[in-house]
User: Which sequence fits this backbone?
């Protein structure tokens, strides 16, 4: 048996681990679930040692029937933006502040005003949002001064697992460029942001290419994980670039929608427009040549669907629910759903925005409500593409991945709303696979995105827009676009 490679995806509520061989055959995959700590005050945190425990348990499971001596390299990806602060001994100073933590929202106007005159300030001020490392560090400085004063280093999301495995403090260009602490024009940490926060230069992680070897696992981790000490660990990258690799988005240049906890629209751009809405992701395999992705986010996507289906309506077998929805009938309903249950980052940059059902009647049943949720989420993605000024219609189809893609109703509705062919992707797609593919690349000097994903990008099913449904969706979409104005008017404090 040849060498094997691990890909680890640190998700918001679960860790997915895949094991592949030299020929990119999937040998096994496991999932480890965990929960974040949340409150009505907008707090979203987790003890990062929970991730380490899940990683250990997951590796033990996936290698239980494998020759552990054959494991050569580990790649780690995961949730972007989440902030981990460490003391002088490398211990976490309290829980990690998650990407969906909302507590910094009251400070955003003040922070944006201070950022706007920095180099790249217009872009930084426009893209900083709740949950970003810049916002959470600013919030810590203002609200938890004792913790802030103890900061010796900070890391972003999956970087913490790289650190725990190797002892190295590093991030990739994705982690840096989406932190709102980084100056894109000069490709370096923003000195003005550093001075604003009052952090020493030594607090910042080193920035390197995603395929760069961060180091080998430490003796302690080798013993804990029952692995050889020469197992290498990549610097890694965020989950969206890793998904863009596995889907062919980065290699072939087409747009991809990921329907996960949040809804993400991403595509590569040659000449990034820093005035357009959306966040730019700088990506590099080696630290010498660079690619740029632009991404926009519907903050609450899969979490919105789960809230409605599971928490409100008590559905647990979602595949059965999918079969009971009849889109041909339900699309004629007057019910509209506005899906921004946890605020918005890209379209309105409004963390206080909330959702709503409109047009309810005593004859509205639970399946119609759930269909309205799916339709509203599709409308939000269309608006996202329009606000980002992305030329998605120049492509014959748009690729879709993630949990939402399992629903045929969701996929057909998305095709009708976008009036585009939808291609549901299958096979080895998703962040864990993307980073595993990078880990398996032996010849770093002869590597391209096409070679990395050769033979792995597949389309499972296609959904064509239906002419009659497209016309109905267009009328409803125009009504949908007016909802935000109505919600803001109603929620205004006029006293």
Assistant:
């Amino acid at each position: 048996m040849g060498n094997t490679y691990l890909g680890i995806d640190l998700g918001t509520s679960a860790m997915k681990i895949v094991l592949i061989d030299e020929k990119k055959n999937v040998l096994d995959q496991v999932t480890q679930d965990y929960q974040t700590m949340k409150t009505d005050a907008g707090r979203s945190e987790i003890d990062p040692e929970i991730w380490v425990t899940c990683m250990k348990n997951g590796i033990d499971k996936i290698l239980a029937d494998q020759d552990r001596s054959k494991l050569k390299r580990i790649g780690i990806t995961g949730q972007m933006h989440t902030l981990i602060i460490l003391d002088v001994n490398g211990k976490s100073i309290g829980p990690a502040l998650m990407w969906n933590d909302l507590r910094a929202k009251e400070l955003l106007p003040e922070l944006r005003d201070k950022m706007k005159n920095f180099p790249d300030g217009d872009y930084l001020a426009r893209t900083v949002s709740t949950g970003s490392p810049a916002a959470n560090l600013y919030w810590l400085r203002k609200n938890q001064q004792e913790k802030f004063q103890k900061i010796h280093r900070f890391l972003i999301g999956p970087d913490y697992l790289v650190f725990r495995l190797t002892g190295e403090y590093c991030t990739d260009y994705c982690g840096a460029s989406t932190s709102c602490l980084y100056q894109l024009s000069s490709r370096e940490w923003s000195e003005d942001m550093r001075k604003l926060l009052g952090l020493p230069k030594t607090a910042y992680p080193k920035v390197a290419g995603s395929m760069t070897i961060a180091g080998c696992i430490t003796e302690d981790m080798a013993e804990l994980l029952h692995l050889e000490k020469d197992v290498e660990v990549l610097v890694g990258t965020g989950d969206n670039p890793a998904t863009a690799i596995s889907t062919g988005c980065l290699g072939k240049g087409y747009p991809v929608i990921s329907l996960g906890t949040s809804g993400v629209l991403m595509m590569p751009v040659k000449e990034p427009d820093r005035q357009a809405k959306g966040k730019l992701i700088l990506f590099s395999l080696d630290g010498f040549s660079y690619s740029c992705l632009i991404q926009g986010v519907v903050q609450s996507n899969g979490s919105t669907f789960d809230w409605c289906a599971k928490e409100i309506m008590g559905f647990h077998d979602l595949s059965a629910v999918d079969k009971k929805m009849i889109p041909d009938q339900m699309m004629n309903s007057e019910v509209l759903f506005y899906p921004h249950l946890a605020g918005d980052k890209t379209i309105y940059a409004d963390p206080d925005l909330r959702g709503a059902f409109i047009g309810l009647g005593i004859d509205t049943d639970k399946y119609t409500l759930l269909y309205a949720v799916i339709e509203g989420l599709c409308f939000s993605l269309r608006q996202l593409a329009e606000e980002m000024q992305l030329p998605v219609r120049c492509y014959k189809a748009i690729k879709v991945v993630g949990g939402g893609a399992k629903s045929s109703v969701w996929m057909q509705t998305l095709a009708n709303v976008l009036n585009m062919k939808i291609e549901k992707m299958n096979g080895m797609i998703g962040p864990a696979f993307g980073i595993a593919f990078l880990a398996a690349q032996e010849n770093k000097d002869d590597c391209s995105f096409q070679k990395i994903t050769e033979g792995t990008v597949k389309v499972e099913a296609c959904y064509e827009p239906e002419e009659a449904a497209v016309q109905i969706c267009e009328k409803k979409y125009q009504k949908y676009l007016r909802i935000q104005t109505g919600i803001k008017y109603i929620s205004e404090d006029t006293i």
